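can u do me a favor
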């Protein structure tokens, strides 16, 4: 992005704020001037896939939150106390049980699921990915075919690039992809994206 584009974006955020006064929230303004859309990432620090996923999102401005064996405590403590997630969405790569907790806790603060991926390697030498979202499942699937990066890194990059529709939408039919398995894949992981429901 060059200086001219930056100034245009900043002006586009300031002018509506001046006209609308308090009707435009800080989150709306920050989203317009380039604050990362994925503001927080929840990950299971025990697994390399989860750490790689989080690393990519952190490079794009997300604040990391490790599960530390208690996802409920994370959501009712450190994550809820840190207002950074209010400016965007929360992504995660966790065990399925931690996804269920995240989905329930997210609902308490007005966040709904806009993307869900299942990454299953039980009894397999590969990982079968089942990707379901309200937009762009084929683009996410294509990103996982990138042989220059791990599937978790490619997935995180595709979530950063996708332009999601806010709100709850009907999920499209799932897309399936197979990739190689990391040495410490636990058998089943879930990736997800929670956004403000409208």
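np, heres the sequence
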């Amino acid at each position: 992005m060059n200086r001219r584009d930056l100034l245009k974006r900043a002006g586009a955020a300031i002018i509506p704020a001046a006209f609308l006064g308090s009707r435009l929230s800080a989150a709306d303004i920050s989203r317009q001037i380039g604050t990362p859309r994925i503001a927080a990432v929840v990950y299971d620090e025990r697994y390399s896939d989860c750490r790689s996923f989080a690393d990519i999102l952190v490079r794009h401005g997300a604040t990391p939150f490790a599960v530390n064996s208690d996802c409920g405590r994370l959501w009712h403590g450190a994550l809820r106390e840190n207002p950074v997630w209010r400016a965007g969405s929360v992504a995660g790569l966790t065990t399925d049980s931690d996804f269920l907790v995240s989905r329930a806790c997210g609902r308490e603060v007005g966040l709904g699921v806009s993307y869900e991926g299942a990454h299953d390697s039980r009894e397999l030498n590969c990982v079968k990915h089942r990707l379901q979202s309200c937009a762009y499942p084929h683009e996410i699937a294509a990103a996982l075919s990138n042989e220059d990066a791990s599937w978790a890194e490619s997935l995180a990059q595709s979530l950063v690039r996708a332009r999601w529709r806010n709100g709850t939408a009907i999920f499209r039919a799932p897309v399936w992809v197979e990739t190689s398995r990391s040495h410490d894949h636990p058998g089943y992981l879930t990736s997800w994206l929670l956004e403000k429901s409208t």
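The chain is about 40% helix and 25% strand. hope that helps!!
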